[in-house]
Amino acid sequence: MVAIRDLVQSKRHVSMETLLDVMAGRICGHVPLRRNDKAALNALNQTKVQYRVKGAVAGKYLVQTDSMKANVLLQAALGRVQLNDDSLGFEMDTCVEMALRIVRALMEYCMESDAGALGLMAFRFGRSLALKAWESSPAPTKLQLLEGVDWDLAQKLDAHGVHSIRQLRDMDPTQLGRYLNAWDCEHLLAEAKTVLDFHLQVQPHVITNRIEIIVQNAQLRQVHRITERAAPNGYILLVFTKSRILLLRRDITTTPTTFMVPISGMSSISIHLLHTAQLGMDEELEVQATATDCTVQKVTKQSLHQCTIPEAFKHGRHGEVQRTKRSAKEEDTSKKAFHHHQTMLEPATVIPRDDPSTTSTTKRAKLSTPSLVEFKQFKWCGSPEVAAVGKSTKSRRHHVIPDFEELSEVLLSNGLTNHPPYQRREGSSSNINIQHVDTERQQGLSCASSSKNANDVKNDGADVDTIPMIDDYEELTLEQEFMKSFFGAKPAEKTSDAKVVDATEAPPSASTPAPHGESVAPSSPSDDSPNKSKTPQVAEIVVKKTPATASASKQPKKPHDDDHALLLYNPKEKNPMKRGGWTAGDPVPYAALSKVFAVIEDESSRLIIQDTLADFFRSVIELTPSDLVPCIYLCVCTELAPAYDNVQIGIGDAILIKSIGEATGTTPKFVKDLYQKQGDLGKVAQASRSKQSTLMTFQTKPKPLAVAHVYNDMVKIAKMSGNNSQASKCSIIKSLLVRCDKLSDEAKYVIRGLQGKLRIGLAGQSILVSLTQAFMHPKEQGDKALQAEALKHVKRAFSEFPNYEVLASSLLTVFTRENDQKGVFASQFVELAEFCHLTAGTPVSPMLARPTKSYAMVLDRFQAMPFTCEYKYDGERAQIHILPNGDIRIFSRNFENSTERFPDVKLSIANAAAKANVTSCIVDAEVVAVDKTTNQRLPFQVLSTRPRKNVVVSEIKVAVCIYAFDLLFLNGKSFLKEPLQARREALKGMFQVTPGSFEFATSLDVANTKDDDMESTVEIVRNFLEEAVAGNCEGLMVKTLSTEATYEPANRSHKWLKLKKDYLDGIGDSTDLVPVGAFYGRGKRTGVYGAYLLACYDPETEMYQCITKV
Q1: What is the pTM of this model?
Q2: Name one GO molecular function term (predicted).
Q3: Same domain for 875 and 997?
Q4: Catalytic residue selected from 379, 872, 906, 1055
């Protein structure tokens, strides 16, 4: 820790947190395995010495575990992924993130140390590890699977000489199909043809001791300076020897691009064009350089020995790695030389190293440069020792990673620096020296240009002391930080001309304009250098930053450049056009709706909830009215279409738990345990999604979710059926979760929506109130009388035609018309009756009754008002529709289409209406199970045993009888405004009774005049109730007969009262029950029992029989 403190206090750009991560593997509160962690070591021993790590390096990289070395770096990190399956409680995403951060540190160390091929090894291993994290989810391509988890397929391609995308694209499908299945063959060839593959060309320049590397579109096959083509994915060009990195250029996105690389004193150079999109199958070349000529050859299994790559981390498409000894001269050179990446910088004025005018003002920070020899302490598992100079590797085949203390000393002694999570802004450099140019005013940045010959390196190498540094820090998200750890800076801007980057090219003069926003120091090049004719002079570039740079780098940001609609939607904004956060005509972002849900969930006031939702609806109406219906259904949550369409999601928690685990890289057991603790699967998904998003390894971020997309996917899930429907549903759910924004609550409400319960306190009536307020004019929104009148019309329209889509479209149509009553906008709600009215074939919300506890309450309610008493049958309420085309449909009280369940009811109603001239009608009735032999009514439990689908009349075992008691619609005329007496007379006049199949409800009319004695009236009602109970009925329905006797859909009115024996005071029996079980609470009841299972003791069986759950 003292060494860390000293390193940080030296004012170098070092992240203490990153150093701790590298040395201790410390992340998210976890530390690596220690030698005294007996439980972990026992688990390792149980898995035996050798195992394959699941989810991280399965198949391709074999890790050999030593229980005494299980606490160090990569082995500990990867081992933790395996230990997760051994029930040690580690999270998959945490384990993989630890491994990736460690590999990132090693890769950065290799790059900073000019470790040559080790840098390529670190990049490839990091890329492969990132792809293996969750098997490249979401939606990986087949090419990405080759680099990640599909090791068997990669081996097949390797065995048949297919090493690059270009080779794969040119492959004969017939030949490829001989050793691949049809699916793999088809998808590999199709994907390979869509990739814009860059191609390497190398032209030697013997006189100048340089090689010209041309990166161009491999599909052009012409001269490299033809046209510019933009690649869909970036590329990295890495040129190196066994001990040096000569050129590193990230994010090549245009073609052609030319690079000039010096080759003085070098015999073999490796050139690799790497896919940053993690496609693998890179373009690779070898350059054999002599004193008089340069030759280029493709990398094959036989020629790859020039690349010093440890066996355990070699690329999957290449053969056995062989090592060659380095000469003493090369070894001495590698200790002192450090080649700077001149190609990463824009042209600027050059200050020669030997210029005496700069020596007094230029001070360099001292930091020893680690060599490849010092890097030999990293002994990778299952691989020969890296760069053991002058020693054979055959006798040292198996080594483990060094212990924690050893690694700490290596990293700190070699000056490992790891940048904090910041990104470089436009115009800043990549690798630069620290120079204090006029420290009183501002700090300059410098970078040494690359390459001298062997003699120059020997003489001047000791003076080259550098430290990587990044200026102008800007905060990144965790996802961006992770992406930059492997792929570096942002993609370069596209240019119209071919770019030529020369590592040895003379810089522009002082009169040359500097890059935008930068000023350059005057140069005084020295012309008397003795080596001028052979190699260019080593120079340093000093870039002075001016205020213009900062202003130029901060471009004004458009609102929609931000992917998070959460940050843009403002519920407090009064103007609906500005409140929304999205452009008019664009899809409504789901993040905006989730923000509304979050606000409602935190609010307990019903009025504020309604106002919040109304404001959101106003924004949708003003900006994207076509998305109003999906927004309404996602708010309703319990249904995605009219209930009579039978569109139900029907997803259990098991599928959701599995989908969350697969989408976030966790196990179903972990998700289930967390669900049991939190009691809210939506919160579990949100927490898991927030962690998983920090590990996203794809450059192209998924598009933000839109409300319409979420709604359509949920409808797809609801309509899926068949053998593979579960897998298809799981796939759609995973795709939704992956696209959820980690900064919003999208994942939480997506999962709750799939469960069918948002649990935010938003009722269906509140949605209608908010929808009404959204369409009201701002001048009328404060008028409570107008609001009540408008709401009455909206509720009436929805009760008669319960379809949100029709209601919303009708409102949009009505309020686009010309209003005859100027200034009275609420009057337009009356016009809803033109579109939303009672229609045969569309169920209407049934009228409901209020319970009554005594006979006196009945008489108090119906004072001097005639009423009727009807049997309350113990069956299932049915709303029977006869359509003009003769079709008959049956709906339940919840609008469920039960026609398929009751084919015998269709026959009965058809026979009853056969003799009458019935073209269309809606009958309210009760379907009751009956015994045909005894003509006795059976309880509801018997009726519930009837199957719900595919019922055949000849196979029906439970017969039913229809008891009709009301008529709502007849031959195109609505009877809702008619009194019950008129409706009942019309009903009895149109249908014919068939005993045991179709009957009218048994009723008793009571005049109930002022002169009637109250006791005699009570006695009449009591006797009729006893008859109903004796006839296996539940009780009585007491209804107004002529006064205030209209039918009110969806209303639990005092016009209808239900009188049951159980309800009456002093009649109902009580039972002593014992709690025998409990259910874990969820939501607000998390942490306590949410319900109890009660039972009654049966002395005959001496057992407790479960009765109910409360």
Answers
A1: 0.52
A2: DNA binding
A3: yes
A4: 872
